[in-house]
């Protein structure tokens, strides 16, 4: 993201060099709608959520300032802490599975597509189809396919002699989170594939020709030349995966498993915890202040991830002029 | 000597053929994995109950063909209304994102003023921080504005959500436009507004299309905000409608499969029409990033 900031600064420098065009009313008119809508419905709610997390609701409807009290409750109160750490841990597992399955798979598909095989465009178009579908639809489709009631998955596995491996994965505590993660991988692998594919296409041919003349094999060219050149894109893919983990993952788990993250909270993530805390569920009464606290914790966790990426990962990646 | 050469050449050609076959095998296998679940749902939605359960992998035959699921969905569910809700929300949000986004991008790329860099960074924050984290306050705000259970609430949120990336992409592109045309227009005495609407907008039309397709998917598919801000019967979107319909009809498999297909098919048709645009949009954005 630093390059975005740098670009923004560079942009203002070129802008400054430009001829002044008199008056500023039109500039304000051009900017006002965006700045207003964005500030009111995106930035203000975020700040307001942070503020709400510092208060505690009273039975009479008023709110009392309690500083970081809600955070202490979330992190240390026995009932809350167990849910919080469980949800965070599940989120990290979700992220981990995406990093070791989705992104390498995206890289493999992109690398194969970049060889420009025949029908490459068709493969690319079809592999991207799941990404377009609503998470709700994807969730139900897989729920049906994996369902022991319908038996499609079981029947197909039996047909190739693997029937004994089948289990109702979504319903078992040990496998539910992995199953949900893999469904999500299936849906979203198109995004890293496209981003990496585009990066591979932007590598100049002269560079690859030179390597071929030097006698490098196709595999060596990929490993020693292409991969180092697309590292910045892999970094972007990683941080997008991390952020998506805390946002869009909710929709999938909510549609397949519901808001409690069953069985026994094994698929409970920060998104479902926030939803439950805010709106209440069954025995639990909704609490905006604790809901805001969970949301703010998600904000800080995302911030930590983005900071690590900006300072630790992106700085170290050499950017080649291509 | 020549025989060695031909053997080597043949081996090279065989190797290339083998490699090409390998590439196709992997891509084809994954393509099947990607579309098989979608196909099986759409196929089975055209079968009767017995057909769905006894031969889920077969094509519908005369004995198993049935559209009873679709009949149930069309009579029981209010899908026409859900569709028009989704359509209104998506189209209006897209229009606002494109118009306001282009205006802001034009201001940021065209004029020199004090807050330019700062505003650029401020708007980019929205790309990194998901708007959902502010849900608690968004709901309160909508309650205060009496906008709960209206499509306007969704439109406002989606516009706020889509603007940062739209401004970013459009600013990048507008900086590459030639200044001469705009300066000519100024010499001709066109106002700054007319320069934007009559000179700049037509020039960025292809990028607008890209941003549109790009911003559309998360709006059309969102479940979170319809669930929280507009879950009333009159304001349900397709995504929420399907989700709740399936919740009620879990045992009626034909109806479930039909409602899923009804939600999938328009997206597939649109994709078939716009896939070139969409894919070039994503790859163009990536090259810049």
UniProtKB/TrEMBL annotation, chain A:
It is a multi-pass membrane protein. SUPFAM superfamilies: MetI-like. Residues 88-312 form the ABC transmembrane type-1 domain. It is found in: Cell membrane. It comes from the Bacteria. The chain crosses the membrane at residues 21-44, 64-85, 92-116, 122-142, 149-167, 179-200, 221-243, 288-312. Its main location: membrane. Keywords: Cell membrane, Membrane, Transmembrane, Transmembrane helix, Transport. GO terms for biological process: transmembrane transport. InterPro entries: ABC_transporter_permease (IPR051393), MetI-like (IPR000515), MetI-like_sf (IPR035906). One of its GO terms (cellular component) is plasma membrane. Belongs to the binding-protein-dependent transport system permease family. This is Carbohydrate ABC transporter membrane protein 1, CUT1 family.
UniProtKB/TrEMBL annotation, chain B:
One of its GO terms (biological process) is transmembrane transport. Pfam families: BPD_transp_1 (PF00528). It is a multi-pass membrane protein. It is found in: Cell membrane. Gene3D superfamilies: MetI-like. Belongs to the binding-protein-dependent transport system permease family. It comes from Citreimonas salinaria. Keywords: Cell membrane, Membrane, Transmembrane, Transmembrane helix, Transport. PANTHER family: DIACETYLCHITOBIOSE UPTAKE SYSTEM PERMEASE PROTEIN NGCG (PTHR32243:SF24), MALTOSE TRANSPORT SYSTEM PERMEASE-RELATED (PTHR32243). SUPFAM superfamilies: MetI-like (SSF161098). This is Carbohydrate ABC transporter membrane protein 2, CUT1 family.
